[in-house]
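Reviewers of the previous submission asked for a worked example of the structure-prediction workflow described in the proposal, so we include one complete record here. The input consisted solely of the amino acid sequence. No template or homolog information was supplied to the procedure at any stage.
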Amino acid sequence: MNLLSTSHWIIDPVFTPFNNDGSINHDQIKNQVDLCKQVGINAIFVCGTTGECMSLTIAERKLIAELWKKYIDPSIKIIIHVGCQSLMDTKDLARHAQYIGVDGIAAVSPSYFKPSNIDGLVDYVKEVALCASEIPFYYYHFPGMTNVNISAYNFLKNASDVIPNLKGIKYTHIDMEDFSKCISFNNYKYDIWTGYGLTMGLPGMIMGSRGTFSYTYHALFFKKLIDEYKEKNISECAKIQHKMVELNSTIMEYGGLIAAKILYNRIIPCGNVRLPLNNNLNTTNDTNDTNDTNDINTLLYKHGTIFLSMNEFFENNEIPNLKLLWFKIY
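From that input alone, the workflow returned the following structure tokens.
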């Protein structure tokens, strides 16, 4: 298999836009679609972790899926995450996603009453996938969130013959041996996507991953990484990857998802995160004054400094797009 010739998607785990009262902001989804197209997103992952799936009602998740489907550009694929704590709710969302005509669905394992062995996991996923048997299904492997520590490779071995529409895995974990086995399983049959894009984008690409998850405002960096990789400029790729790790470290230092949404809100206002998440930045300072103006300004300064330093990887005709995003955020 020629891994350099394999197509590689940039997949955006889109934020859910909220109004000030916590309701869904219908109007912003069209703006989100426009931005995705502008920066070269290939696919969107709706109502995933970044979209705060477990903080949404079933009715809200159906509405959000319908709105993305309504406004999406034909060049961008839609994957709807349907995972819930209840199997019945998950199956309901899977049937709905197929009905509205999206390009695929994904589901994470339940994390409260969770499968204790491989048979339980495969049986659960099979029931969900077969509810939407006409479209591709992707297993969302995220043991850091679900605490379901069944290897994704073991899942593939046991699920591949019993789930006909199994298309691949969103792999959000750092077990490189397991990740490698998933990619090469059955002669590279399945689409294995790198969930931790900022830290594992280049390693995943080299190993044969067919997609990398990226916040919208980082997509231009991933596009450049893919272009350089196709040209076999591995040294340049490594430099880009090191910078993206720095971006990730800054976001994680200031609260992960909370910080990521604060940055996104500078481009398209999408409201606060929902409780039980709070909107205080989790900083490493020793004061109790979290999420004050100084914290936000420090986040913007640190992230913006790294962001702008990546100009060095772009040609002059590419820099205006990068600077346009920079000025919107900072």
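The chain has a mean pLDDT of 92. We consider this example representative of the routine output the project will generate in years two and three.
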